[in-house]
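Re: weekly structure request thread

Next one in the queue (687 aa):
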Amino acid sequence: MIMQRNNNYFNVSKLKGLAIILLIGIFISCEKEDDIDGVNADAGENLTASTNDTVYLSGENSSLGESITYNWIFTSKPEGSNSILQNPTTATPHFIPDLAGEYMIQLTVSTGTENDADEISVIVEQGQSSTIEFSGDISTDTRWTNHVATPGIPDYLITSNVYLNAELTIEPGVLIHVKEDNAFVVNKEGSIVSEGASGEEIEFTSANEEGEIHWKGIFVKSNFATNILAYTIVKYAGNTEFNFSGPNYATAIGIEDGKLSVKNTRVINSKGYGFFFHSGDIMEFSQNSFSQNQDYGIRINAAQAAKIDNETTFSDPGLAVLIYESTLEESAETNWPDLNADARYYVEDWININSYLSISPGAIFDFAEDKAIKVNSPGTFVADAAGSEKIVFTSKNIQAGLYWKGIWVKSNDSRNTLDNVEISYAGNSEWSFSGSDHAAAVALEDGKISLENSTVKNSKNHGLYLHSGGMLLQFSSNSFMDNQDQAVKLMSDEVKSIDEATTFHGNGWDGVTIYNSAINEDAEWVDLNGSAKYKFEGWVDIHSGLTITAGAELVFDQEVALVVKNTGYLSAKGTSGNEITFTSSNETVPILWGGIWIQSSDGRNELDHVSVKYAGGYEFGFSGANYAAALAGDDADSPNLTLTNSSVTNSGSYAIYWEGGTINDVESVSANNEFINNAEAMDVVIP
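Done, posted below.
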């Protein structure tokens, strides 16, 4: 038998050799089948690719009877190629071919005792080396490569809007130029993975930077968690508004009902905002940079503001982060961080807090005119910078005479705290309380708060106002400066919280103003710091024990009185040279106040080293005829009083009018009292 192949001839002996080879092949083939029970390498199908594409390999179809290891190597590649296999000891390595030609790659799998190898070929053609123009839809998963080596020449030129309906992955180093007012819109079915690397950032920019022509930006409407901009530059975007549901905004990056991570990304020269969050979720946000944008770097709501990190930078501190009108309704605790360096928040409208919000020390907030933070009954507000850099809340534009409204606490959560906080230029307009309305920088209605080591200044009205149910949990070492109305105005039951270290300077009234109310718990009122005084705008009924410390000065508006009810007592004990004063709020005119009316038989009613001036301006309703007096007692109440070392002067009527009950011999030498310049001929009447 003679076989012919390529004009070469083989004799029978050669044919016998061929038979032997065939038998060996059959043996090897059988042995290969036996290896299926052990280990069998499968490097996949031969591939084709282009230079600068990423070639993904897979040995996951290798069979095994037990755990195996993988090892991939180039057995050959085009001369001069520097391509390297990445992750070569895994089932799924990859490489980027840098030259055209054939790449032979071998996979060896091993169990430790058995191993097998398989080899594939990757034929690589020369890839695109010039700019690719692109527009329209991306409907299948797509990868954009860094294929243009010349610096400044884009890999892709976008000539109209690009709509992502599948995943677009952009490799590190890709440069994308976008023509005027065109955008990347990531629809619900799509996703964007723009993940560069340090030194190999991905860049989106205008096709005409020199002419300062802007493109529209990136609009994410997809809620895939894979959406990411990392080590990405977005320049000269924000040309015109995106169509958000609600008001429309121009922004370099926008999110509506989408998810996005933004890391190590720079947003530069936007014609609008740098980043606008409408709705959805910011997955991660860290170490970004916003510079030379015409509007705020970030526009965001109350909940997502917590995602901003302290390492993100802003070239204009006054145009850093804008928080728009929103309600914090998250169930989890939320924290607004201190922004990087001296960057500031701008609160554009009302913020309603219905959950827990804390503010980091050092944070600075500018408020638009008449806007506010309102802490509702389910909410908690903690601005605690004790021992650290103070937190600041102020007006955005005080140079134009604009005041914000303030902080309104309607929550009775005991965690509500203002500590080492500065609040300035608030109090623009009245809060709508139940009953009469008042304007104040800090206001409480049925709410609780601790206020310590803080400054409230330059309010257009009151500094601090407590309405019904308001409670000061802790109050110490505060400062009230240059508030146009009362520094502190509250009901009498809360006066006990005011401490000696709190200072008052330059206010419409320096001290504590008390409106018509009652004392229902034992209390001590301290001598206020410096020349600060207590001012009574309305009658106060004492139903429990009130102790006033030496040096305190209490002034009363016209016809206003202090009434010690039958369940209460008044103990006001000054010292020689440091007496306690009860007088008119206007001694110059003078205005006469009502006086002190004792309706209590408690033996602790005592006035010692006390001065009572310009009282007797109101007739008390005795059981019978009515009488005006600086100090009064009616036998129907069995009143009890001890008056020593004191003076009653300039009363509009009697100094003392006392019927029944008990009073010491106030005119005796041992009592050491003085009665001077009172209107009635008889200073003391004790029928």
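The two ends are 158 Å apart (CA to CA). Confidence is low (pLDDT under 50) at residues 1-36.
Next request, please.
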